[in-house]
Amino acid sequence: MLDVKNLSVVLSKRRVLHALNFTIRNGEVVGLLGPNGAGKSTLMRALSGQYPIEGAIKLDEHDLPSLSIAERARNLAYLPQTRIIGWPMRVRDVVALGRLPWRALGQRSSAADAEAVQHALDLMDVAHLADRTATELSGGEQARVLAARAVAQDTRLLIADEPASGLDPAHQIMMMEALRRIARQGRMVFVSLHDLTLAARWCDRVIMLKDGEIAGDGSPGLMMQPQRLAHVFGVRAHFALDTEGLILAPTGLIQR
Ligand code: ADP
Ligand code: MG
């Protein structure tokens, strides 16, 4: 379980996150929703150890901020919002970077490493690109390759900042299905999303952030109600239900 208590982050003397409290349980896909500038990326960076924090972050028995970089990388994978691959490497080698935290320095990759890499390539639908040069792929393909790298890291917690942004509709659904499959192995997935439709349908729980504070934490059905969507996002939406769950489509602006 991830247990966050009174988490505050101050950047350039500005308090960006204000005493957040929440948990993520094993097996859950938790969506992080909120308008631009709400603090989603800051929260995800803080959890992955990139900012000094106030408060406590516990991942099972570990105190996250006090873990070494190597230990953290074996427990938590972080997929940043900006996903451009800078090095002209083979796709398979990019994904294999996710295995490094599991190897001693200089140790060669094992059959288990190769299997984890192949599994991640398949899960993110980039296996057919495995021998291509990563920098020559489209933006959406590069995004999926970097997601595969995070999956190959094989951690109990996966944090993904807007992994579905910029993907075509089929790959957005594939991404959400993949995250759900990862969670169903007993892991924790924390994913920020701008697409309320995807969030409503694929997240077990959503946490809403507004101005660096939690503005809602609960099931999509409970959280994504007209009043809260108006308050947090300034939109109204159309709601429907089918056998697989909630269908939500933003339809207009609320005058504020
Ligand atoms: P989101 O991901 O929800 O769009 P961010 O976490 O990127 O939002 O940003 C939240 C707020 O924190 C914004 O107002 C942004 O300007 C501010 N912020 C982000 N990084 C810094 C920084 N390094 N220094 C000062 N303010 C920052
Ligand atoms: Mg962001």
UniProtKB/TrEMBL annotation:
Keywords: ATP-binding, Nucleotide-binding, Transport
Signal peptide per UniProt: none
CDD domains: ABC_Iron-Siderophores_B12_Hemin
Pfam families: ABC_tran
Keyword Secreted: no
GO molecular function, one term: ATP hydrolysis activity
Ranges of residues in domain ABC transporter: 2-236
Origin superkingdom: Bacteria
Record-linked PANTHER family: ABC TRANSPORTER ATP-BINDING PROTEIN (PTHR42794:SF2), HEMIN IMPORT ATP-BINDING PROTEIN HMUV (PTHR42794)
Family label: Belongs to the ABC transporter superfamily.
Name of protein: ABC transporter
Originating organism: Nitratireductor aestuarii
